Amino acid sequence: GNLFGKEKPLKEVLRENKRMINRAVRELDRERASLEKEEKRLIIDIKKFAKAGQNKTVKIMAKDLVRTRQHIAKFIEMRSHLQGTALKLQTVKSHQAMADAMINTAKALTKMNKAVDAPGITKMMAEFERENAKNELMQEVLGEAIDGALEQEGDEDEQEAIVGQVLDEIGIGFDNEVPDAPIGAPKKSSVEQEEKVPETADPAVTELEARLNNLKR
After folding, report:
1. Closest by CA position to 72, among listed 43, 32, 40
2. 91-116 pLDDT, tens digit each
3. How far apart (Å, rounded) are the C-alpha atoms in residues 82 and 75?
């Protein structure tokens, strides 16, 4: 915790550690650059003293060059370790961000589930189905009632009576004078029917056909 006893959030801790690592990497880079300059200077001096024949000085400076190169390699290795640590921190930060997103999503889902009244919706759907069934039954009953009211008793008997009266007026018996039409027989045109009227046709039938022709005109 800090001075006031309140712990820092993980996001803030990760940010501070990342800044610390970046500072350490920059410091290592400066030290390595300084050692590389020293390495170049030692190489130049070694060549100069070797030309001058000062072998003892060359050996001493060669040891310094070896130690300098070893330190440069160590700085490079430490920098690599710091970079790996920074990557691990970045991974932790990503995991934390994913965990926060999942927590927020879970909270939103909880609020949504609380806002949705599942039992109420189920009850409403059951009530809708029940009322819809009642409505369909009512429409069916009303349709049958309307059809029954519009269909008057005795219509069929009255129609039969009118047909019989018309046939009686023209002198045709339903059983004797009007044969049944053959099933599947081809229909003849009105012109053929007019041309093939038998000469010995009954006057009543001829009168009926004339009246029918007048109606067609």
Report:
1. 32
2. 888 888 888 889 989 888 888 878 77
3. 10
